[in-house]
């Protein structure tokens, strides 16, 4: 798949959907589906970095996902621990920055500690900036941003889009031009609610574990053929 390397989206968001349905379709357990999804993420991060994508935000665990069976949530958290441990171990040879968005206070303390360690160890890298959304919801992010704004102690605050944006989880990061969702579902599911107002969307029928670099390039090619008008004619 040929894509225009001079016209890459600077920031791509991905709703990584379909792990459980992939597992069911292939006769595997749910956790097998989540594990394969994690492996797909690792490969895609490497591919996106090689392509020259500057920012990649992936939806890993939403504020609504806590409603799932306790055993499944526990397995997902253990997978997250494994992923973070791998990031800590391999940070020296990788060239991407890792950050997180979401309410980290709702996570176990050992996971919070690992997240802080990964952020510290990768902060000076020069490649892709990877943002992993964990315990994240777009509406929750806006509520937390408003709280931080009013707790900031600033006097005579004029509430503007720019001012509120300064208190979002990833302040200073450009809004995503392009958001991909896998598994055939056509909704944003509370992902980057504030930031996605002018994002282009792409919906793939592939379950996330089957989403390949060729699928990624196909999506980018589709984006490159769109006419973005931002509300204009």
Quick summary:
The protein has about 230 residues and is an alpha/beta fold. It contains 7 helices and 6 strands. It has one domain: Undecaprenyl pyrophosphate synthetase (3-Layer(aba) Sandwich).
For the secondary structure, the number of strands is 6
First-residue to last-residue Cα separation: 31 Å
| Order of SSEs | EHHEHEHEHHEEH
Approximate shape:
globular
Helix content: 40-55%
CATH architecture identity? 3-Layer(aba) Sandwich
Q: How large is the share of residues in beta strands?
A: 5-15%
Quaternary structure annotation: single chain
Name of the top-level CATH class = Alpha Beta
Q: Into how many domains do the coordinates divide? A: 1
Instruction: Please state the structural category.
Output: alpha/beta
Largest sheet: 6 strands, parallel
Low-confidence stretches: none
Kindly provide the radius of gyration, computed on alpha-carbon positions and rounded to a whole number of angstroms: 18 Å
Report the CATH topology name.
Answer: Undecaprenyl pyrophosphate synthetase
Strands across the major sheet, in which order?
3-4-2-1-5-6
Rounded mean pLDDT score: 94
CATH superfamily: Decaprenyl diphosphate synthase-like
Task: Give the helix tally.
Answer: 7
Structure description:
- By secondary structure, the protein is of the alpha/beta class.
- It has a single domain, classed as 3-Layer(aba) Sandwich (Undecaprenyl pyrophosphate synthetase).
- 41% of the residues lie in helices and 15% in strands.
- The relative contact order is 0.20.
- The model has no long low-confidence stretch (mean pLDDT 94).
């Amino acid at each position: 798949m040929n894509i225009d390397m001079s016209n890459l989206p600077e920031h791509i968001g991905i709703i990584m959907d379909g792990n459980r349905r992939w597992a069911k379709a292939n006769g595997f357990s749910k956790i097998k589906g989540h594990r394969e999804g994690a492996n797909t993420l690792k490969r895609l991060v490497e591919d996106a970095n090689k392509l020259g994508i500057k920012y990649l935000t992936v939806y890993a665990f939403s504020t609504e996902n806590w409603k799932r069976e306790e055993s499944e949530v526990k397995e997902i958290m253990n997978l997250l621990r494994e992923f973070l441990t791998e990031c800590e171990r391999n940070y020296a040879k990788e060239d991407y920055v890792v950050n997180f968005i979401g309410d980290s206070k709702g996570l176990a303390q050992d996971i919070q500690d690992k997240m802080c360690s990964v952020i510290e160890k990768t902060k000076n890298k020069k490649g892709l900036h990877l943002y992993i959304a964990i315990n994240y919801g777009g509406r929750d992010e806006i509520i937390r941003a408003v709280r931080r704004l009013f707790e900031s102690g600033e006097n005579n605050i004029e509430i503007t889009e720019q001012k509120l944006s300064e208190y979002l989880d990833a302040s200073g990061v450009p809004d995503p031009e392009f958001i991909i969702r896998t598994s055939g579902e056509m909704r944003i599911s509370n992902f980057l609610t504030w930031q996605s107002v002018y994002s282009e969307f792409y919906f793939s029928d592939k379950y996330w574990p089957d989403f390949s670099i060729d699928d990624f390039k196909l999506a980018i090619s589709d984006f490159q053929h769109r006419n973005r008008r931002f509300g204009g004619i």
